Amino acid sequence: MPGFMVLIFCPGLCYPARQGRKRKFKPLPEGGHTAGISPGEPLTPPAAYSSGRRQVSHHLVKTGYTALVERLNRLPQGVAPSETLFRILKILFREQDAARVAQLPIRPFTVRRAAKIWKLGEGETAQILRDLAERALLLDLERDGEPLYVLPPPMIGFFEFSLMRLRGDIDQKALSELFHEYVHVEDDFLMSLFLPGETQVGRVFVHEPALTDAATAAPAQRETGAGDGEEPSAAAVGSLCIMDYERATAVIETASSRGISLCFCRHKMSHLGRACAAPREICMTFNAPARALIKHGHARTVSKEECLDLLRLAWEHKLVQFGSNVREGVGFICNCCGCCCEAMASARRFGLLQPIHTTNFLPVLESGKCLGCGRCVDVCPVASLGLVSAHDSRKPKRKTAALDAKRCLGCGLCVRECPAGAIVLQERPQRIIPPLNSVHQTVVMAIERGKLPNLIFDNHTLASHRLMAAIFGAILKLPPIKQLMASSQLKSRYLEALIRRAGEQAL
User: Fold this and answer.
1) Would you state the CATH architecture of domain 19-194?
2) Which of 172, 384, 459, 465 could bond 407 through an S-S bridge, CB–CB 3.0 to 4.6 Å?
């Protein structure tokens, strides 16, 4: 899942101690090892994992790594401290680098700003930042021709970047094993990433070949000058309304830059001996994130035509498109399989809790046409389809497909896979509207997760007027209940006055 919210994270207070519970640690593949563990040595729970409050063994003494974890945990998505996480960070960061990164603002910053924080010369600081960007631990952006850096979150961010190309400077096999343990054995991280609140980090794109021929026609012209409350242009497909932001083809065609990298998930699983045969160099990044990754060799630049060809290749391999949960400025689209992909695995794992935003479509089955072949069941990446009795008195053993709509992602893979044409897409009763952009998404996630003060303050320094205006502007566009949540977290009379005024103007 290679993408991230580039824009503005302003951390503040230390994270509270997390509650833990005993876990069963699954053994790694035969011959596997992790950092600091010899091959063949079994993985056992760290001594600090006990019932009740979780501790982090010898990392209780503050180090550069603990400081970095504290910094990362102030992001809306957060991280779950554990021994495994510290091992991951030790592979990716030198301790001095971790300590330095922990001091940096989470919103984009300049070389001058970093030099002031680190109390170093700008030349030395620039070299350190370039080195961190070369290792994809920071993102190297540009504003008005000046280098601008940002600290990406762990996921979707520098975890993925570490495996988006073949590298000899780190042990990618050991890293893959640690990622597997952290994500699939210790479930706190996935729970903190996907479950709090209603706003998720990613969403599913509809499988366009599942639509009628009109869906694959040239995209409608995007309206210019549309405000936050206006819908972008759409294409009519029979009775369906397909918005531009719902189509991966429209994202590719309108992107200012396009990059292709190795799929983090399948690359990781290849080191575990479990990767499927789906294409690996097919992870897509766009716009500013793409330019930053291309600059340091973590992605290769591709034309619009090649990117569309790769999308068609993904469709042929029955992969699901999973991308940024925003309408404007989509930063990534992953082409996910049900067996390797972290997002699909989370959707199966948490089921009805919906850790991924769905499309605005649902498959509808015509049981009279269903052959009971099970092809739709096999292709579904989240096990939302199954075979049940058709209750046919003439053929008692006859089966028919049945859909669990609450688990369904609405990707449409089953529609294309059905040989009898027994499945069609229909619009969901209530349309799901993603956040407008990364600013909007970040603010909403912070409110839902009780981290809005972290967005406003950075090392107890008030954010800039421009940033505050962006945050308050996003808050004022939220539903009243979320405005109330924001106001209660900030305890700001100014914000309450703005909300009250906005409400009066809306009457």
Assistant:
1) Orthogonal Bundle (1.10)
2) 384
